[in-house]
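Hello forum,

I keep getting stuck at the same step: I have a sequence, I want structure tokens, and every attempt I make locally crashes halfway through. Rather than fight my setup again tonight, could one of you with a working pipeline run this one for me? It's a single chain of 139 residues.
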Amino acid sequence: MVNKVILIGRLGADPEARYTPDGMMVTNFRMATDMQWKDKNGERVSKTEWHRIVTFGRLAEICNSYLMKGKMVFIEGRIQTRSWDDRDGNKRYTTEIVANDMKMLDSKGQTKDTDGQGEEDQIPAYAEPETIPENDVPF
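Reply #2:
Ran it on my machine without issues. Output:
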């Protein structure tokens, strides 16, 4: 069985961080993906889907430090549905993506300063893959 999600989209708001009782950081953010097509009349139609993303540990720290509203990211993870009882005793459900990989896709890296405003930084948006010399390829 496979439970794998790959998304490319933009953040709808800045990430929100909190900590588990044992001190692990958890970061949540909303992400929008969209698709476009032409309907039967030839009119262009667009639809946006919103996804709840949750990250843990070191990935949560990175997301909290470098992501902000409007930033384009690649997310890889799994779908998870959880439930809880609200204050009135009603059963509530949410479906979210538990991310295990994130890559920033915008051309320039940005960090959040203490005022919560974006500040340009020299951090690359993504790591360039290592180049393997042709004669070292194992096949």
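The mean pLDDT is 83. If your local run keeps crashing, start a new thread with the error log.
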